[in-house]
Amino acid sequence: MKSDIPKTYTEFEFRRVFEEYNRQVYAQVYALAKSHYAAEELTQEIFIKIWQNREVLNGVKNLDGYIYTIARNYSLNYLRKAASDMRLTNYLMKVAVIGCNDTESALQVSEYKKLIHTAVSKLSPQRRLVYELSKNNDLSYDDIASQLNLSKHTVKNHLLSALASIKGYLTQNGIDPTLILVFILIKL
What is the pTM of this model? Predict the structure, then answer.
């Protein structure tokens, strides 16, 4: 591992760091998550986060430890979220099986859809287009990137930002976004 950290990280220098640590980060994430898909996604997210905060790298004394810590934290957060999501899904499935008033459920779903529609309408035009192509047309990142002449990573970033904005809007309106998603999926 290299310990000589350049004063400023250019794209070339960051690419060198990525190439040097990519396999290690993937292996570390895979060892905790036990999923190739999760390891790929988290490895990408980790390096995106490092790139976005590359100015912090100037003050890092131990790059190995820094990257190891980020990878470990991302992996553990992923596992916590997955466990939490599974508990919530199991709980909601039990509630759905017990049954509830169909008219009331339909009204709630309608309200939730209106809130989501309002949140989507507040997105920037490009972000809204990416979101709609993904969610309404069920297009992959590659398909959207090709159609809009964007990179796959740009599409992913637009979609992640759109989802964060929608989640923030729902939260501001006193709604737990996770409950809406699971509720709509169960009810439709």
Answer: 0.45
